[in-house]
Amino acid sequence: MIDASETGRIVADGEVATLVFRRRLPHPLAAVWRALTDPAHLAKWYMAEAVLDLRPGGSVELHAGVSRLHVKGKILVWEPPKVLEHEWKVAPRAELPSGEDAVIRWELEPDGEGTVLHLTHRGLHRLTATGFAPGTHAFLDRLDAHLSRQPLPGWQERYQQVAPQYPPMWK
User: What is the pTM assigned to this prediction?
Assistant: First the structure.
């Protein structure tokens, strides 16, 4: 059963959408920050090859996930260890015929011995957001497992399990 507090939201305005997730992770802020910004950690839970120039105006390049999505962008906000915001630019490809030109923001706040993660992924095409919502949920589950040093849930299996919580937005 999925905890409703872990389910993200899709906020749509016409054909543009934003994914919004809030997760409380029972891990210290420094550990969560490291998992979000260290290529060795990203390789595990995010299934990403990452090249990061971590500074204001620096760059992000990822080959991420099962589909090896190639993401490029500039760092827009860099406030360690609390905020990382960067462009999310993807060239057109078969499953994303228009590509994507979005922004993702990872924001952390301490909460006792844990951390609250606020994730917003804005400027997505509405249809892309519908597919990305359960995928992002699955990645956040993998992040928590990684930080807990537990076996990582299979991304595709977890996607299928949580997808019913995210109704299609193309109706």
Answer: 0.93
